[in-house]
Write a structure and sequence with these properties.
- This protein is of the alpha+beta class and about 375 residues long.
- The protein has 2 domains: about 55 residues, no CATH class; about 300 residues, DD-peptidase/beta-lactamase superfamily (Beta-lactamase, 3-Layer(aba) Sandwich), CATH 3.40.710.10.
- It has 13 helices and 11 strands.
- About 40% of the residues lie in helices and about 15% in strands.
Length: about 375
């Protein structure tokens, strides 16, 4: 209805209402009521046209980016998915983004968010003391293990959170997982915040041992005990266990769901302002994955991210990821999730796919002299 038509109806409301009720009738009264009881609009009442509702133009995803992302996923030898969500403009680009793939250490994000959600509700504080004992040690990437003595190691919730995110420390993460109430608490957070197709596994020790075909024993946490036990398994046992993990990963998630969750985090929809700032600042200090998203970061752009690396059997890898928030020099933000669920390609090719996805978004090609790094790409990191 146009503004002029609305104005005309408003100006003539007294007359229209009187006519509709019949001669000498007011709305809500019988026809026998005297006509003198109805008073029309005073002559000095002026109707104003109602302004039209102006809709914000829908911003379409860049066509070139859609084509590049689709070509990257289709051309990669293996199972991969890419999802990019423009935090501020609202568009989404994805290819393979709805398929659930192993998260590995990307799942540390949900532990961190659960910790900070409990901070927001007053259940814990970042400076709360925590003691780690040898029984808390896990496997693979756990730099904090060198500090844990038989008498224990004193630290804080905030320090563990920083280690879990920036160095992808498995022991720091699993200790936080115990602190918040175990996997059930993290799953409850994911469900309550409606994060979509994101699973959370049983914790690092059980997840990695099952993926290898082992039953967890705490002795595996000492030295290279896990690797030795794994090497003693029959090849067919390991192959069957890895195949089962890839087919239905207990820590599986869709790249599109992760990108959406990161976009909501950036908009302040998941945590308080201070917790959101703490989490993003910490993610901005991540040291793992130097040859992944970070390698394709142009000057003036910033990155807050989390990596994930799964086990390998021969040439086969199950889970190689990098997800995060890219911020352009003009302040526009983009949530990105690049996940490789299953491939026979070497690590360098996996790194290059992640770099190419970031480069498609930023328009920047990574420095070809960037050296592939393996020291921070161990399983669980």
């Amino acid at each position: 209805m146009t503004g002029s038509r609305i104005g005309w109806l408003t100006a003539g409301f007294g007359t229209l209402a009187l006519a509709a009720c019949g001669p000498g009738t007011r709305p809500g009264t019988s026809a026998s009521a005297p006509a003198a009881t109805y008073v029309g609009a005073p002559a000095y009442v002026v109707s104003l046209p109602v302004p039209k509702v102006m809709r914000r133009p829908r911003i379409e995803a860049p066509r070139a980016l859609v084509e590049q992302v689709d070509a990257l996923v289709r051309g990669f030898p293996g199972v991969a998915g890419i999802a990019i969500r423009a935090v501020d403009d609202g568009w989404t680009v994805e290819s393979g983004g709805r398929r659930r793939m192993p998260q590995q250490s990307v799942s540390k994000l949900w532990v961190a968010m659960t910790v900070l959600d409990q901070r927001d509700s007053g259940r814990l504080k970042l400076d709360d003391p925590v003691t780690l004992y040898p029984s808390d040690l896990t496997l693979f990437h756990q730099p904090i293990a060198a500090l844990v003595k038989p008498s224990g190691y004193q630290t804080t919730v905030g320090a563990l959170l920083t280690r879990a995110l920036t160095h992808s420390d498995n022991t720091a993460n699993d200790r936080l997982l115990t602190l918040v109430g175990g996997p059930a608490a993290v799953r409850s957070f994911i469900e309550r915040k409606q994060l979509g197709d994101i699973r959370f596994g049983p914790g690092e020790r059980l997840l990695q041992s099952r993926t290898a075909g082992l039953t967890w024993q705490q002795s595996y946490s000492l030295g290279n005990g896990f690797e030795i036990a794994r090497s003693r398994l029959a090849p067919e046992v390991r192959a069957a266990a890895l195949e089962a993990y890839i087919a239905d990963p207990p820590d599986g998630a869709a790249p599109l769901a992760i990108a959406d969750a990161l976009a909501r985090l950036a908009r302040g929809e998941l945590l308080s302002e201070t917790s959101t700032r703490f989490l993003l600042t910490t993610m901005g200090s991540t040291v793992t994955g130097r040859a992944r998203l970070k390698a394709a970061l142009p000057p003036g752009w910033s990155l807050e991210h989390k990596t994930g690396t799964g086990q390998e059997l021969g040439r086969r890898n199950a889970g190689f990821n990098d997800v995060g928030l890219l911020t352009a020099p003009d302040g526009r933000r983009y949530a990105i999730a690049v996940m490789i669920g299953d491939t026979m390609r070497p690590m360098r090719d996996r790194q290059l796919l992640i770099q190419a996805a970031a480069g498609a978004l930023t328009g920047h090609r990574a420095d070809p002299r960037a050296i592939a790094s393996t020291e921070d790409d161990a399983p669980g990191s």
